[in-house]
Fold:
Amino acid sequence: MKRRLLGFLTILLIGFLAESCSIATNAYGNSGMSGGMSSIPSPPPGAAPYTVTYFNFTVNTNGNPPLDTNAYAAGATVTVLGNVGNPQLTWLGFTFKGWNTMQTAANNLDGGNGGTFYAPGATFQINSNVYLFGVWQ
Structure:
């Protein structure tokens, strides 16, 4: 009986943690997550206008990622937002460094699996929908 209860509580806790990730929506109200899945999403393919969506997939943080409501034409210049969500993202013992096109591990600016790091205020030309993930050190 105790073992079953412990198993149930473990599953309940894992489900809670998976759903507690801070996820912003893009200009079209799309968070990139479907059906309550907690896997790391990929930007949707499609033609302009393009969107930039900021994510925070670190369950140890509090706050919200920023929301970019712009719809960008192909080739437009995007200025990367800082930690300007309301409230700002915080992670005890870590400092927010910027964003990466791939999900990162703490203390790893390049994501450890490739991706491009962008400091707040950096610019890039947009030619597809872009997802950016919080980077912490």
In short: Confidence is low (pLDDT under 50) at residues 2-38.
